[in-house]
Design the sequence.
């Protein structure tokens, strides 16, 4: 691997730490985009859905979740007995090496605490039973009768199993951008991102007030009817965590958002504009239960019951530190074409060639790492495997390996997917935590993270998109 | 198949006539292909979309099946399809689609 | 040649996307009346 290719040579920004949090919210699956629509059309589905929801212990002991929070290496998932939703991990804990799972009661309390506009109200008795903690902002409390009344007027009921424990109201009767469903999604992203950011700081003994800038790449559009995607959820998250010296802004690029956010954060550090930058993303409530019908049909539990979030802290590279290589950053230009070949050429082959590397010089690829137990029953296939085979196929076409070696390439440099289908979360960034550990122990020399974005879904362009960069260790 | 695309296909069948249309798919895996083919030939198997109960009988191919690939000019084939041909397992798709096409 | 000449191309992002199917079949002399790409995740 060349250190001095190009006029700049190796350009590195340090990854100080990363944290991945999962909020287990089974009684919010009904408000995912697909379940919400399907259950409104066919209420019987709502009852069927309830029967197939997991409890918190099952979510904790679920192998892909343990991999997500850092307790199981993703490379070992293929050795574990399947199906993972049946073969739960004994002795699994909700605390991970670089992540955690928190339960629905905790989520509801935080939701109310993060709400500054009295959108959320909680049932008085339930709140007292669940800690009854007051933060800077005490939640609005209501009796069960009062909750039922506001729900009849259109507020979203918040349930804990069959018990009505709260309500989420719209902020405006006519503004679709301030409808209860939209604000619930946005506030859920804020809460989950804040948990990851708070936790990464704690793990690093970093005070929130030491951060200069927060970039959020959450998927939600935060705004009102005059400015639907106004954004800057980042600053709301920063405030929630106590980053009093930081400002922030949002980066949005569909599922490739986190990778772009990392590029921009690293650029802020490299240029000296900011010293300590956080990249954060909250979970996507809209994607809860996206494939629930196929899970019900196949008689498996509803697996899309968690909100996935993450936070990364970046600062100037120190000796021996895991870093992002700015000289490796690759984009997918407008004229590049949407074929898998064009994507792989622009996001893997060309940037590697700039560093004097071949596809076979990469020790690990982090691609679209969606949990196959979620995607296969619904006909979406094994997304990670397809991505790995694409890289292997390009290596064959370039004569770096031969066709019979494709499976070896996938096995040696890839892994099974393990991220919840939250959109931006599985897209490469999910592997950063494990990659960093392997780099620190020198088990691997480098890892290439490649994310893709389906811009065509927004109907502004037919284009696909992607972003990639290499991780390695700074010299000692 | 998503409902928007089902709706468009229905509209195009009305506009051009099913007898003039062919659907060509680009799925990466076989299990999606079977559902898509059934949707377009016999009707949406989930009975939920615009093609629920509507049997258009439009033949369905996959871009990587020999019958289709062989017609694509060589330069385009090499640049745009060759890599996918190494990645996608076309045989099971071909079995499913060939069987469906025979039923038309 | 395929008997029915008007093509509806439904691609998949991680398989072969719609615009790619369209380009290949137009190159083969077909008329592509509609193309779309589905994304399953």
Sequence:
């Amino acid at each position: 691997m060349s250190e001095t290719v190009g006029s700049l040579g190796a350009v590195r920004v340090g990854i100080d730490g990363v944290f991945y949090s999962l909020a287990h919210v089974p009684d919010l699956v009904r408000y995912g985009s697909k379940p919400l629509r399907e259950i409104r059309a066919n209420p019987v589905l709502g009852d069927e859905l309830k029967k197939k929801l997991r409890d918190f212990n099952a979510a904790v002991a679920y192998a892909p979740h343990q991999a997500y929070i850092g307790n199981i290496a993703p490379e070992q998932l293929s050795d574990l007995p399947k199906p993972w939703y049946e073969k739960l991990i004994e002795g699994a804990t909700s605390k991970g090496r670089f992540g955690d799972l928190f339960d629905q009661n905790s989520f509801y309390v935080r939701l109310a605490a993060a709400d500054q506009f009295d959108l959320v109200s909680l049932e008085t008795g339930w709140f007292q039973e669940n800690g009854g903690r007051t933060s800077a902002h005490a939640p609005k409390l209501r009796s069960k009768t009062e909750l039922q009344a506001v729900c009849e007027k259109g507020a979203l009921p918040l349930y804990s199993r069959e018990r009505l424990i709260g309500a989420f109201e719209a902020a405006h009767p006519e503004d679709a951008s301030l409808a209860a469903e939209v604000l619930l999604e946005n506030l859920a992203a804020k809460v989950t991102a804040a948990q990851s950011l708070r936790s990464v700081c704690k793990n690093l003994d970093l005070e929130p007030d030491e951060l200069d800038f927060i970039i959020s790449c959450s998927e939600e559009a935060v705004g009102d009817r005059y400015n639907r995607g106004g954004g800057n959820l980042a600053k709301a998250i920063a405030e929630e965590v106590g980053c009093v010296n930081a400002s922030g802004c949002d980066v949005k690029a569909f599922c490739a958002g986190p990778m772009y956010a990392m590029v921009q954060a690293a650029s802020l550090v490299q240029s000296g504009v900011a010293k300590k930058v956080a990249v954060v993303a909250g979970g996507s409530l809209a994607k809860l239960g996206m494939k629930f019908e196929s899970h019900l049909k196949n008689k498996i539990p509803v697996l899309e019951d968690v909100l996935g979030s993450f936070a990364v802290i970046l600062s100037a590279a120190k000796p021996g530190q895991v870093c992002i290589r700015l000289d490796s950053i690759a984009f997918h230009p407008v004229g590049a074409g949407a074929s898998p070949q064009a994507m792989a050429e622009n996001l893997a082959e060309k940037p590697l060639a700039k560093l004097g590397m071949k596809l076979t010089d990469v020790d690990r690829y982090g691609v679209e790492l969606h949990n196959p137990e979620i995607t296969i029953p619904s006909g979406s296939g094994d997304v990670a495997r397809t991505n790995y085979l694409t890289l292997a196929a390009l290596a064959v076409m370039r004569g770096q390996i031969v066709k019979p070696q494709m499976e070896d390439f996938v096995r040696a440099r890839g892994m099974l997917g393990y991220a919840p289908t939250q959109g931006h979360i599985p897209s490469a960034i999910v592997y950063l935590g494990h990659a960093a550990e392997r780099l620190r122990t020198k088990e691997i020399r480098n890892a290439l993270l490649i994310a893709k974005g389906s811009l065509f879904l927004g109907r502004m362009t037919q284009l696909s998109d992607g972003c990639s960069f290499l991780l390695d260790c700074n010299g000692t | 198949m998503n409902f928007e695309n089902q709706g468009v296909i229905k509209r195009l069948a009305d506009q051009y006539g099913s007898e003039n249309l062919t659907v060509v798919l680009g799925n990466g895996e076989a299990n999606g292909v079977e559902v898509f083919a059934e949707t377009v030939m016999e009707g949406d198997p989930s009975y939920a979309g615009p093609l629920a109960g509507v049997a258009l009988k439009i033949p369905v191919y996959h871009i990587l099946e020999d019958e289709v690939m062989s017609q694509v000019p060589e330069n385009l084939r090499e640049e745009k399809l060759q890599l996918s041909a190494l990645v996608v397992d076309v045989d099971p798709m071909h079995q499913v689609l060939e069987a469906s096409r025979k039923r038309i | 040649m395929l008997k029915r000449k008007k093509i509806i191309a439904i691609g998949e992002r991680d398989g072969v996307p719609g615009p790619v199917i369209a380009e290949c079949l137009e190159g083969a002399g077909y008329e592509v009346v509609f193309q779309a790409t589905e994304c399953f995740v």
In short: The radius of gyration of chain A is 22 Å. DSSP finds 16 helices and 14 strands in chain A.
